Amino acid sequence: MINYTLKCSNDHRFDSWFQSAAAFDKLKAAGMVACAICGDTDVQKAMMAPRVRPARSAAVKPSTPPQDVSAAKEDTTAAESGGPLSTATSPQEQALKDLRAHVEANSDYVGKDFASEARAMHEGTAPERAIYGEAKLEDAKALLDEGVPVAPLPFNIGRKTN
């Protein structure tokens, strides 16, 4: 596996993993490599520093953290600028983070029972409330065919966090 820093024609920078350099070239030629931010398929490899780890005995731990992280350019990612990885790096990322927080704060998580709970509320056998959960594609299509108003969420809703 190889990790490339990529840049689109709109100057967005993002990282992506590929099985090999040849796999990247093949996917790029087929138009299957697109900007993670704007979807532009005119993507090039950006300049990047190699990630080489020194031997354990030669590794030196920094005695003080970097001083001026706030002076980093705006288009760098949180990892490049030294900020926490949980910090949103774009307005779109912040909007998704806010949406997720709103859904989790104002809805009940019903997990794998989403389809049956939504159907029961639609039929009037369960009290109506805001819910979110997980459903198989065929179950979601069946709900839509039955006239149950459902929509996919633009983020993963798994409860596990590592």
Protein topology:
Layout lengths: L1 E7 L4 E6 L2 H9 L13 E3 L32 H4 L9 H16 L1 E4 L2 H10 L7 E3 L3 H9 L17
Parallel strand pairs: 4-5
Antiparallel strand pairs: 1-2, 1-3
Folded structure, characterized:
With 162 residues, the protein is of the alpha+beta class. It has five helices and five strands; from the N terminus they run E-E-H-E-H-H-E-H-E-H. It has a three-stranded antiparallel sheet with strand order 2-1-3. Strands 4-5 form a two-stranded parallel sheet. A hairpin with a 4-residue loop joins strand 1 (2-8) and strand 2. The longest helix has 16 residues, at 91-106. The chain is elongated, with a radius of gyration of 22 Å. The model is unreliable at 69-79 (pLDDT under 50).
- The number of helices is 5
Please count the beta strands (DSSP E, at least 2 residues each): 5
What proportion strand?
5-15%
Order of strands across the biggest sheet? 2-1-3
Rg, Å, rounded? 22 Å
Compute the separation of the termini in Å: 22 Å
The unreliable regions are 69-79
**Shape from CA axes?**
elongated
Summarize model confidence as the mean pLDDT: 80
Structural class: alpha+beta
Short recap of the structure:
This protein is α+β, with helices and mostly antiparallel strands and 162 residues long. It has 5 helices and 5 strands; from the N terminus they run ββαβααβαβα. Helices cover 30% and strands 14% of the residues.
